[in-house]
Design goal:
two-stranded antiparallel sheet, 11 helices, 11 strands, WH_DNA-bd_sf, about 300 residues, LysR_subst-bd, WH-like_DNA-bd_sf, seven-stranded mixed beta sheet
Length: about 300
C-alpha cells in the first residue's frame, strides 16, 4: 500500500469526531471540497468507504469504525513525536546569558548581531544589570559574559574595551550650552537614574560633584534610560551620563563635556575562566577582534 500522508489521517479522525464536513473543515482550516478530496484519497488508499454521507452529516461505516482507533493512535503518536522532538531541540539549543550596562548600549547589540550571523543556533539572553550584580552572577555561574565598569572581582578574567567619562546631558539650547557646568546645575534640576538600579553611575556623579566642589542635589527621576532622556528633551532637567550615550541621544539633547576635573573609568568585557563554554569563547574572540575604542 502506498504511504499515507499524516494530513489524511488527521482529516479522517477529525471528520469522524465532528460528524460534519462543515465543522471538520472549519477545524482543519480547509474548504469542504478540499476535505472531501482528502477523504476520497484515503478511501482509495485503504480500499473501502470510510463514511456514510447523509443529510445529517457523515457517520463511520463498519470499515471506518475498524480503522478509526488505529488512525487516532497513529495521529497521537505523530503529535507526541513532534512534541518530543521540539523538547529535545529546546534542551539542546545552546544559550549564552549576558549582562551589559549603559556604556555598552551601542556596541553589545552589534556584537550580538555579528555572532548570530556566525552561530545562528546559539540563543543569547541579555539583561541590563549593574556591574556589581553582573560580577556576582558571573562568579555564581548564572552569567557567561558581562560588560562592566572595571576593576573586576577576584576570580574573574577581563579585557578592557575603552575608557569612559561623564558628560552633562541637556536640552539643545543656545543659551544653556554656553553655560559652564555649575551654571547649568544652578539653572536646572539634576536628574539621575535610580541609584538602586544604576549604582555605578550614581557613584560616579557624586564623585564628580565632590571632586569639583559643585553644588547640586541629584533627583532620582526614573530607572529607565529612555525615560530619563525624554525628560531631558522636554526641558525638565539635566543629567550626568556616560559620554558614550552620544550614540543614541534624542535630536534635541546635547552633551556638555566638563572642563572641570574629570572622572574616568574603564569599561571591559568580563567572564569566569573556571567555567568552560565553547560558545562564550567564540563570542569573546569576536569582541576582542572587533573592539573599536570609543573616544570620550
Amino acid at each position: 500500500m502506498k504511504g499515507i500522508d499524516i494530513k489524511l489521517l488527521r482529516a479522517f479522525v477529525t471528520l469522524a469526531m465532528k460528524g460534519s464536513y462543515s465543522n471538520a473543515a472549519k477545524d482543519l482550516f480547509l474548504t469542504q471540497p478540499a476535505l472531501s478530496k482528502q477523504i476520497q484519497t484515503l478511501e482509495h488508499l485503504t480500499g473501502g468507504d470510510l463514511f456514510l454521507r447523509g443529510r445529517h452529516g457523515a457517520s463511520l461505516t463498519v470499515f471506518g469504525q475498524q480503522l478509526f482507533s488505529k488512525a487516532n493512535e497513529l495521529l497521537q503518536a505523530h503529535i507526541e513525536f513532534l512534541n518530543y522532538a521540539r523538547d529535545i531541540n529546546s534542551k539542546n539549543r545552546e544559550k549564552l546569558f549576558m549582562g551589559f550596562g549603559i556604556s555598552t548600549f551601542q556596541q553589545v547589540p552589534k556584537w550580538i548581531k555579528q555572532f548570530h550571523q556566525r552561530v545562528p543556533e546559539c540563543e543569547i539572553v541579555i539583561n541590563h544589570l549593574p556591574s556589581s550584580v553582573q560580577m556576582k552572577m558571573l562568579l555564581e555561574g548564572r552569567l557567561h559574559i558581562g560588560f562592566v565598569r572595571m576593576p573586576v572581582s577576584k576570580g574573574l578574567a577581563s579585557y578592557i574595551l575603552y575608557e569612559e567619562t561623564l558628560a552633562l546631558a541637556m536640552l539643545k539650547n543656545s543659551d544653556l550650552n554656553k553655560m559652564n557646568i555649575q551654571a547649568a546645575l544652578s539653572a536646572y534640576p539634576l536628574l539621575q537614574l535610580d541609584p538602586s538600579t544604576n549604582p555605578c553611575l550614581a557613584e560616579q556623579t557624586a564623585h564628580f560633584l565632590q571632586s569639583n566642589q559643585l553644588k547640586a542635589v541629584p533627583v532620582s527621576a526614573t530607572d529607565d534610560m529612555t525615560s530619563l532622556l525624554a525628560l531631558i528633551a522636554g526641558g525638565n532637567g539635566v543629567a550626568f551620563l556616560p559620554a558614550s550615550v552620544r550614540t543614541f541621544l534624542p535630536a534635541n539633547v546635547n552633551l556638555l563635556m566638563p572642563v572641570e576635573r574629570q572622572i574616568r573609568w574603564d569599561i571591559g568585557v568580563v567572564w569566569n575562566p573556571k567555567i568552560k563554554s565553547h560558545r562564550r569563547d567564540e563570542f569573546l574572540r569576536l569582541v576582542v577582534a572587533g573592539d573599536t575604542p570609543v573616544v570620550a
